[in-house]
From TrEMBL:
Membrane-crossing segments per the record: none
Cross-referenced SUPFAM superfamilies: Acyl-CoA dehydrogenase C-terminal domain-like, Acyl-CoA dehydrogenase NM domain-like
Domain spans labelled Acyl-CoA dehydrogenase C-terminal: 227-349
Keywords assigned by UniProt, alphabetized: Oxidoreductase
InterPro entries xref list: Acyl-CoA_DH_C, Acyl-CoA_Oxase/DH_mid-dom_sf, AcylCo_DH-like_C, AcylCoA_DH/ox_N_sf, AcylCoA_DH/oxidase_NM_dom_sf
Domain of life: Bacteria
Protein name: Alkylation response protein AidB-like acyl-CoA dehydrogenase
Native source organism of the sequence: Streptomyces achromogenes
Coiled-coil stretches noted in the UniProt entry, renumbered to this chain: none
Pfam families membership: Acyl-CoA_dh_2
This protein's record includes keyword Oxidoreductase: yes
Amino acid sequence: MLSDLGKTLDIAREDRLLLDETCRLTERLADSVVDNGFARHFVPERWNGGAGTFTALLDAVSELAETCASTAWCAALYAAHGRLAGYLPEAGQREIWCEGPDVRVAASVVPPQGSAVRTDGGWRLTGRWATASGVDQAEWMLLASWAALDDDPAGETREHRIFAVRRQEMKVLHTWRPVGLRGTGSNTVEGDVLVPDHLTFTLGDLGRVQPHAARCHAVPFALVASLVFAAPVLGAAEGALRTWWETQIRRARPDGGTAVQPLVLARASAHIQAARLLLERVAQRGDHAPVTPVLVAENQRDVAVAVELCGTAVDELFRTAGLRALEEDDALQRHWRDITAARTHGTLDFGSAASGYASALLAARAGEETR
């Protein structure tokens, strides 16, 4: 179902200026994302969800991001958060999806914010959580906080705990006015709610293999988490390249030729194609490969490199596009702003990925030497 994006792409084109003005998705665009199957993509099959693949999500999100990275970002996260909600206890899953799998779930899970205090049968969750993308149109939220372990009420040892809360129980603060990804509506929420035990799980639970689970629920969070944020970057880069090329071939020289810049074209297109190959391999590993710590680190490395390749390519495209690209409504500028904003996300940091990759290789080597 994710492949049939025609209507959503048409709405995204029509509503792009509204997204920039209001800093959120329009209601009809958010509804169309659901109609396309993004919210249900990773929902477990027992709730009539898709239990889909990472490859299919990469393809659909990148295609959508060629037109609107903000829409693609929210679509990717609605899918990803449906996957995370699948780690709730069964009673919690039933509460979220009892009426069907097409439920939009927003989240703010890294880093933990607010406070969580144990109560009878649940938790009191209080505080403020930033950058919850797509929250205005969400029905549920996943919010993370540090929480004391059950056997340590003094709170000297803590765990990263995630809580599912109905969005209507939280107040949305419209704090999102960024330079790029404006339409994601990544606003702040605040509240003071009681959360029963069946609507919470820990970050450690994301590595738990569920009985009879589909592949998408049987891989560790770290293996695929960054791919969700890289997919919109890839599509935006492909959209930027197409926009730049179309402008170049229309630009006439005095001798009647065109102003195509072959070095820029060749380098940028190669970088973006290389990024796609890297991200396709990341998705295929998520769908099929035996999981090891080194594989997790390789995925994180490849995602970070792919995003760097896209960013470098689009920086050069923007720099060589001429004065037209400086206009506020220019499509290339929009792609450049969106990619620039996306690259600040912590999961896409190359330095962290590089350190993790080196550590994983050293640990694997040490393990081999002790055998």
